[in-house]
């Protein structure tokens, strides 16, 4: 039985992880990290703690869906108490991403801005389309619920990287994340990533390739957040016996 610790357990994805783990063979919830007091009921066999060291020690693997600063604190403690980590938190800054990369030298870490099978495949398709559709303008639009804190979404940023890589470009040189005012014509290489927020949209990503006379749009829509929790649980099972290193969801899905 793989003992799972959930970080961000009271959140939208965290709550689903607790539910989905109940019906997952060979895995059980061992521990949740809470900042204050627990605001939901939980099986008494599960350790509830606000001490990161105890949290890590009580688990064989950790699944994290929290916020960037919380993820940073987890990574810092994990370097002293290493455990396989599945990280789903998005909006990480450069320092936090570097911390994650460094930590992966001493423990296995699977970092995915989107845990769904569909988006993992979409990334491959975007890379191929970007390479094949020379001269097409690439525009990415993402839509999420009104509570989402980071923008653009982690998924949209990853898709923009796939698109840039398909053309041998560095995304940092070509990404545009807003247009307003007299900004002039679109430049040839730019890849725009635009964020829309509203209601309860779980997650929708469209990558468009636009040319004079034709365009293609690749679209993925998540209709249930359980797609992410189930994907993270599958990733955790896969990661549990891996060597230290940084893994992607494509590694886990063998895409
Ligand atoms: N990779 C993926 O497939 C997906 C990633 N996400 C990302 O996962 C993260 C969480 O998303 P939601 O569950 O919607 O957010 P949420 O706001 O509902 O939950 C955040 C959780 O983090 C906890 N938290 C906040 N600050 C903390 C701190 N300082 N220390 C410890 N815990 C802290 C909160 O108590 C809460 O349990 C976001 O970054 C989101 O973008 C969301 C869905 C899918
Ligand atoms: O915050 C969310 O909800 C989601 N966040 C992830 C992201 O930033 O890409 C994944 C998914 O789209 C839902």
From TrEMBL:
Its main location: cytoplasm. GO terms for molecular function: 4-hydroxy-tetrahydrodipicolinate reductase; NAD binding; NADP binding; oxidoreductase activity, acting on CH or CH2 groups, NAD or NADP as acceptor. It catalyses: (S)-2,3,4,5-tetrahydrodipicolinate + NAD(+) + H2O = (2S,4S)-4-hydroxy-2,3,4,5-tetrahydrodipicolinate + NADH + H(+); (S)-2,3,4,5-tetrahydrodipicolinate + NADP(+) + H2O = (2S,4S)-4-hydroxy-2,3,4,5-tetrahydrodipicolinate + NADPH + H(+). Keywords: Amino-acid biosynthesis, Cytoplasm, Diaminopimelate biosynthesis, Lysine biosynthesis, NAD, NADP, Oxidoreductase. It is found in: Cytoplasm. Pathway: Amino-acid biosynthesis; L-lysine biosynthesis via DAP pathway; (S)-tetrahydrodipicolinate from L-aspartate: step 4/4. Catalyzes the conversion of 4-hydroxy-tetrahydrodipicolinate (HTPA) to tetrahydrodipicolinate. Homotetramer. This is 4-hydroxy-tetrahydrodipicolinate reductase. It comes from Sulfurimonas aquatica. The lineage of its organism: Bacteria, Pseudomonadati, Campylobacterota, Epsilonproteobacteria, Campylobacterales. The gene is dapB.
């Amino acid at each position: 039985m793989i003992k799972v610790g959930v970080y961000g357990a009271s959140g939208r994805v965290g709550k689903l992880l607790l539910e989905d783990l109940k019906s997952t063979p060979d895995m059980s919830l061992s521990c949740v990290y809470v900042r204050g007091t627990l605001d939901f009921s939980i099986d008494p066999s599960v350790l509830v703690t606000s001490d990161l060291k105890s949290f890590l020690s009580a688990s064989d693997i950790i699944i994290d869906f929290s916020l960037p600063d919380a993820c940073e604190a987890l990574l810092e403690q994990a370097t002293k108490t290493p455990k396989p980590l599945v990280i789903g938190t998005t909006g990480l800054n450069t320092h936090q991403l570097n911390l994650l990369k460094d930590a992966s030298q001493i423990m296995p870490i699977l970092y995915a801005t989107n845990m769904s099978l569909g988006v993992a495949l979409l990334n491959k398709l975007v890379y191929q389309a970007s390479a094949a559709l020379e001269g097409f303008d690439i525009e990415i639009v993402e839509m999420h619920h009104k509570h989402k804190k980071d923008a653009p979404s982690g998924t949209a940023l990853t898709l923009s990287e796939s698109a840039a890589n398909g053309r041998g470009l560095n995304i940092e040189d070509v990404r545009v994340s807003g247009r307003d005012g007299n900004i002039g014509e679109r430049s040839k290489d730019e890849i725009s990533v635009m964020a829309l927020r509203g209601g309860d949209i779980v997650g929708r990503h469209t990558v468009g390739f636009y040319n004079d006379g034709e365009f293609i749009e690749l679209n993925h829509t998540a209709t249930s957040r359980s797609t992410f929790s189930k994907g993270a649980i599958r990733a955790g099972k896969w990661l549990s016996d891996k060597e230290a290193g940084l893994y992607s969801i494509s590694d886990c899905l063998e895409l």
